[in-house]
Amino acid sequence: MRVTVFGTGYVGLVTGTCLAEVGHNVVCVDVDAEKIAGLEAGRIPIYEPGLEPMVLANHAAGRLQFSTDAAASIGHGEILFIAVGTPPDEDGSADLQYVLQVARTIGRHLERPAIVVNKSTVPVGTADKVRAAIDEELAARGAGIAVDVVSNPEFLKEGAAVNDCMRPDRIVIGSRSPHAVERMKRLYAPFNRNHERVVVMDERSAELTKYAANAMLATKISFMNEMANIAERVGADIEMVRHGIGSDPRIGYHFIYPGAGYGGSCFPKDVQALERIARQNDYQARILAAVESVNDAQKGKLFEMASRHFGGQLAGRTFAVWGLSFKPNTDDMREAPSRVLLQQLWAAGAKVRAHDPEAMAEARRIFGERDDLVLCDSPDAALEGADALVLVTEWKAFASPDFPRLAATLRERVVIDGRNFYDPASVEESGLAYYGIGRGRSLAAR
Ligand code: UDX
């Protein structure tokens, strides 16, 4: 099938590439000419495992093209995806201006019936707004063209996006048009082998499904972080508790890892946006508010531990920081707990030596040149002259450090483990002080 995808960000590029991979003929459109020129030349604007070879192969095979020409691209697709950004505006609600701009562009240039699919995460009711924006443009030029608007949220995890897209758990199709549902099912047929993954529902339910999924996952994390904070105070180890509760299939082992708070482009934004949607509809979402406030506090946890260890005297101290991205296998630092930690350390007069396997360029872009930050080429280089090590992101490269060497290198022999990545006993055996998240009074209060 012929498909056009508006937006070559995370969602658009991964979706377009995976659709091309299964044989569809895809054009990805973006207003950013530099990005499109880069993609044409084989430069992938994001780091996502497995994406680059797939883009290159499908581009070479002619199934994946890139363009800045919206009008021509609208002519290409029978199905037109909207996958542009919906950044939060000042009050936390999703900013729809880019989505609606694309809708209007489609309305201005469409020459034959089409299915417009919303993939961006958008407030409930956006499908209606998209339909209205397209209809308005069509009416303005007297064009009576039939357009179906479908809500088809994405559930991609950064770092695993290609796999999530190629092997989805579910494919949510929000539409009340039998024709649109039939075409969407055909589009996704290659991803829907062996058992039925397509869930058909109305547009609003599909829009809410996306928020509900992310809010539920964020809730699990904040809940566990709260348990960790309790565990720490009562002398329990949250890692034991995690095993203890995860074995109950109703709870499950997934997404109950305590840590330094969730970050990324989705959870913080979507929890806020859903809270806002609820408020606009005369409902105060108390659980969502709590999820957000627990997470905000949790992002200050690593600093708190550092400050407690050093009796509040952090000025002149140097901290090695391992991991800057909000999670492993991505260079994305949006809402990353590392950013809160660094700002707090700097505000207290401390210096940072940081290393991340992929996010160094992003860190340079975000922080610029500053005296209190050294971006180091390797994990070892970050340790040189540091008093303590803070593990913020659980990259594989940080999984098994040589602890005796750490003990010999770190001036104050302190390891703060923001992901409960290390075995406290192995760390302590080497003569290092160990602090984890929610791992018992003896560990927390030295
Ligand atoms: C998320 C959803 O998983 C995905 O389905 C949706 O489409 C977009 O948002 P993503 O933001 O890429 O994906 O990352 P994810 O792997 O879900 O992690 C989000 C954050 O939660 C990270 O900061 C991670 O470190 C944190 N996390 C996750 C925990 O702190 N504990 C956990 O148990 C799991």
UniProtKB/TrEMBL annotation:
Any single GO BP term: UDP-glucuronate biosynthetic process
Catalysis performed (reactions): UDP-alpha-D-glucose + 2 NAD(+) + H2O = UDP-alpha-D-glucuronate + 2 NADH + 3 H(+)
EC number: 1.1.1.22
Pfam families given in the database record: UDPG_MGDP_dh, UDPG_MGDP_dh_C, UDPG_MGDP_dh_N
Binding site for substrate: 155-158, 210, 255-259, 263, 327
Keyword terms: NAD, Oxidoreductase
Annotated NAD(+) binding sites: 30, 35, 86, 121, 158, 269, 334
MF-aspect GO terms: NAD binding; UDP-glucose 6-dehydrogenase activity
Function: Catalyzes the conversion of UDP-glucose into UDP-glucuronate, one of the precursors of teichuronic acid.
Annotated protein name in UniProt: UDP-glucose 6-dehydrogenase
Species: Arenimonas composti TR7-09 = DSM 18010
